[in-house]
Queue: 3 jobs
Job 1
Amino acid sequence: MGGLMNQVKSARLPATGKEVKFDQDRFRVRLTGLPAKAPDDPVTTFALECDGEPRQETTESVRKERPRLKA
């Protein structure tokens, strides 16, 4: 997920209740170690616990500060 301004404290799959590992940098949150088969169909939902009400940077400033490689 790109542009999340909050610090993520935890992530989980509501369908199973299992924790999901993640890493976060200034520009995005990456969910890792996901199961090979999605636990819910047709759309998988993730629950992220943040350090406050979620805020997302939706302006182009994120892209200006971290341009796409080879684009």
Job 2
Amino acid sequence: MVKFLVLVKPGSSQEKIIKTGESELTVYLRAKAHDGEANNALIKLLAKHFDVPKTSIQITHGLKSRHKTIEF
């Protein structure tokens, strides 16, 4: 199982993933932090980036925060 600490920046002009540490990422999303849109966009972007199914990625901490823990 892989674990990452993720800082999410919703409402950005572009979508990108920046590795900021050994197991830390900063993720810029176009989606707004409203009704889980940013969480869904985060899972979709990470699944594409790491080439894993969306269903295997879980937000284990920080569901309503910009600081999240992701496992897959």
Job 3
Amino acid sequence: MVFHVLNRGVGRMRIFDGDGDYLAFERIVEETLQIRPMRICAYCLMPNHWHMVLWPEHDGDLAAFMQRLTVTHVARWQRNKHRVGEGHVYQGRFKSFPVETDDYFYQVVRYVERNPLRANLVDDLDRWRWSSFWRYRRGTASQKRLLSSWPLARPEKWKSHVEDPQTESEQAAVRRSINRGSPLGGKPWARQVAEQLNLTSTLAPRGRPRKFQPSNKARQ
């Protein structure tokens, strides 16, 4: 099963101040892969948060990989910034959301890799060094080994596909998954996965239930 995984700096604090911070995180990812194998389909590092699209092979792989990655990153970040013991780096434990491996997979990868454009950090994704988009297209053979194959074929002209704006409904679906922690996919699949992973509450309508209003006939 594929997962969209993300985390943010506490209070939306910047966790990447420059190239050195981004490079350090990518090195930690590479080190973690040597100890906790993981298929990385896509990722994007942003100034105060990051996204990954991960495809674990076995139960428990996701938690093991993310724990090793984030614990190592926090320790090195605090040491490098001379902020050991001064509080949290991340807003909390990483968030992860199951993704159906059909068009929803492409949808979430586009969302992740489009981040620098959406945030107006660059006007061409080839100029954002800190993502799977750049690494796949511009990286060396060694750099590309960080990335795994996909559960689906990579579409032709992927660059133009990613750079084209997503529809409002596509963005809303991904954001709803992020905000609610719910599976991203078709309704039957989402219900099935939610039951398997004890996430059924994430699919329930939000807000207080409507109060029952008796009809006029019932009041008589």
